[in-house]
Amino acid sequence: MANFFKNEKFKSKKNQSENHVSNESNEQEKHSHAEEWEKELSQSNDYKKTFYFNQKTGKKFYFTFISTLVDDKVLDDNILPNLLEDDFHKINDVKKLIPIPDVMVSSNTADIPQMLLEGYIMLTIDGDTSEFAFISSQKQVGRSVTSPEIEFSVVGPKVAFVEAIEQNMNMIRRRLPVKELIAEEFIVGKLSRTNVMVLYIEGVTNKEIINTVKQRISDIEKDEIADSSYFTQIISDNGNSPFPQLLDTERPDRVAASLAEGKIVILVDGSPHALIGPTSLTEFFNSFEDYFLNWILASFIRMIRLFAVIFSIMITPMYVALTSYHYELIPKDLLSTLIISRRVVPFPPILEALFLEITIELLREAGARLPTKVGQTIGIVGGIVIGTASVEAGLTSNVLLIFIALSALASFTTPVYQMSNTIRLLRFPFLLMAEKWGLLGITIALCFLLIHLLRLTSLGFPFMEPIFPLRLSDFRDALFRLPFKSQANRPQYLRTDDSNRFSKEKANKKKDIDE
Amino acid sequence: MLQGSVQERMKISPYMAAYVIVAMQTGMGVLSYQQVLVKDAGHDAWISIIATGLTVHILVWIMYRICETVEGDVLYANVYLFGKIIGNSFNTLFIFYYIIYCLTSLGGLIEIIRTWMFNDLNPIVFGAIYLLLGIYIVFGGFRTVAGISFLGLVIPSYLMLSFLIPLKYGDFSNLLPVLDHTPMELVKSGYNMIFSFLGYGILLFFYPFIKKPQQSKKWVHIGLLGTTFIYTALAIISFAYFPEGLLARSIWPTLEMWKIVRLPFIERFEYLGIANWALIMLPNVAISLWCASRVAKRVYHLNQRKAVIVIACVCLIIVSLLQSRDRMNLLFEVHSKVGLAIAYFYTPILYLGLLIKKKVKTK
């Protein structure tokens, strides 16, 4: 897509040089071209062309703009009064007269439609169409900054990204006010012409990552980009994997921290989510709130979360495997509890489990589609009523109901939404394999999962890091989190240009007793 | 210039070499080696294990010397020493050896599952799925093979804790008196132990994939020590747990020991063990598939993707024919004899040959 963009720029440059050489001969052609864009644009009702007279010189001048894109207030307060009252002879005077920094004088008609569609006002003087000025007065329509909803945290900053990329950039820049923070811009999408920014810190982020990302973005072939999640799907290494390979976040603080670690960030205009890469599996189970808590608490919570993931995937398949095949494996006392609860259930365990799993998925999906307040009620009522009723009706055993409810609960502890979806999907193949071969089937499914994870990469970096390749030093911020003073080096796997974050000696300096 | 060299980003860290080798060594042998071991040297056989373990260190040292001498893998060493035609026909034999290796691993796993878990398990369906896993690994390249070797050792390592429970019921006076067997009996036991150690030969093939081969030596030897230690410890626990006569009649003593493990939520622990064994055997199958297809690629310049699929199909066909204990025993026999010949005869001879050839050339 960038090629397309470049081509056009190149063409416009060529046009400009031609204009200088033979202004006369092109006049006719230019005129017809000008009429063409005007004809197309004037089909829309928000295309406006108005004229005024300057009070001192009596010059007649035109404003051409698209009213829905232009801020009326700027036009009325800043532009019009100056042009009406001050000395206005020729087009170049505009720059002096108007208190707006973004004013361009151009003689290139090819630019006009694009500039108008970007929210510029075109100013022309009657009788002289060869030169015209573009005045920036874009209307900013967008919501104000709100607190994060998906990655909520009890302590810590309470701002989340919004749709406007300028505002998002503003939030990041304010957190990292250094000249090394580079933001490279790309235009993606033939129709949407979405503004995309690639952010990194010069001298820290590995050049290879930057080049990979830039290359992949310029290779994108898509007419319309609605959200940053399109990017996750298009530029990730393996598009056929249920695992997200780029981390998306709505927190500016997380973006700033990732940039400081040496990662790369992609911002997409119109999307309140930034993408972070390269990332690894363990990072998807880290909440940013972990960094606001003491390292002991944070590590404990991470362990709980890891246990929750394993529990969530494994417990229902285990139930199916044990009750279908390996009831010898269950100790006698526990077995009697299980048998009593399953006594009246007419279905094999797999049907029972699938029935409840799908019920939970239905509740979740219904809750997600409904407005927040109604959704909560549906969740509680549906969960309790359906659960209790199905046990009483003898359709499911209450032991399984407990397991399913717990595993659903556990799957929601995953802090990254994309990953918690994946976790919920994963248990279905495990269930089917458990039905086929019991514990053995679960192991086979686990093998498949492990191989898949081993083969995955995120922007060319191994996804399973630091577990494989085993990098002990990167464990300090993976499954648990060590104190900040032990995080003096950037993660090893990012291969940063500058691996040192701060002086380890100073951070670790200890005072002697009574000093 | 390394022969059959590979790109830097395909290579594995030096310490990973140890995991690949130990993963290849750990297989069906761990479940059943005590029976053959105890036949000759009785309760003194743990001495034989240590002795055999030491010979493995010498052989691995020779293997490193071979690879260093030719700066490449054994395939190149064969061609270098014997010329293209004879060398490559030697190399072709390795394809068959690793197919047999894959078959013993897969066949042994299926046999155990059928005996202990599902006696109606369809070997073709299970074999097909298992080999598909193997193909999926090999398609990911040697790094994935190394990765599954690592995980296939680390994840089931919790099983080691389970051997502490039979220890509680063990009677260590079974081990006394020490050294009441003749040296000949000890040697015989040691000879039987050789087969349980097999698998380190893979080093000859993946040597070019190690980042700093010199540094990997230390790790590989540590890994081999680990294998010897586990075999010895497990043997001592078994000798203490079983009376000698009973041990000689148990086909899978390790599994039988697990029967004593009782946790508040798990009773028949051997089920868990067998399920885990499916993960432990995966590196064996994956490494042998990788190795066989790699040899096919290096010798016949085939596409490795196609080669591994063909080899897996061959394995599947043969596995479906391995339905009886007799045929399995025959396969084990062939595998151990060929493995023994390669390790204890072929490797030293190759090394000597290379030394002589080098000397002649420099003169």
What would a concise description of this structure say?
The complex is a heterodimer of chains A (515) and B (363). With 515 residues, chain A is α+β, with helices and mostly antiparallel strands.
Walkthrough of the structure:
The complex is a heterodimer of chains A (515) and B (363). Chain A has 515 residues and is α+β, with helices and mostly antiparallel strands. In chain A, 48% of the residues lie in helices and 13% in strands. Chain A has 16 helices and 12 strands. In chain A, strands 1-2-4-5-3 form a 5-stranded antiparallel β-sheet. In chain A, strands 6-7-9-10-8 form a 5-stranded antiparallel β-sheet, sandwiched between helices. In chain A, strands 11-12 form a two-stranded antiparallel ribbon. In chain A, strand 4 and strand 5 form a beta hairpin. In chain A, helix 12 (349-369) runs antiparallel to helix 13 and helix 12 (349-369) crosses helix 15. Chain A is elongated. The relative contact order of chain A is 0.09. The mean pLDDT of chain B is 90. Chain B is built from 17 helices and no strands. Chain B has one domain: Amino acid/polyamine transporter I, CATH 1.20.1740. Helix content of chain B is 77%, strand content 0%. Chain B starts with 13 loop residues before the first helix and ends with a helix. By secondary structure, chain B is an all-alpha fold. Chain B has helices at 14-25, 29-41, 45-70, 74-82, 84-116, 123-139, 142-154, 159-162, 164-169, 183-197, 203-206, 213-241, 244-249, 253-258, 269-300, 304-321, 325-362. Chain A binds chain B through residues 325-326, 328-332, 334, 437-440, 442-444, 446-448, 450-452, 454-455, 462, 464, 467-470, and chain B through 12-13, 15-16, 113, 117-118, 121, 126, 129-130, 133, 136-137, 139-140, 143-144, 147-148, 150-151, 155, 262, 264-268, 271-272, 274-276, 278-279, 282.
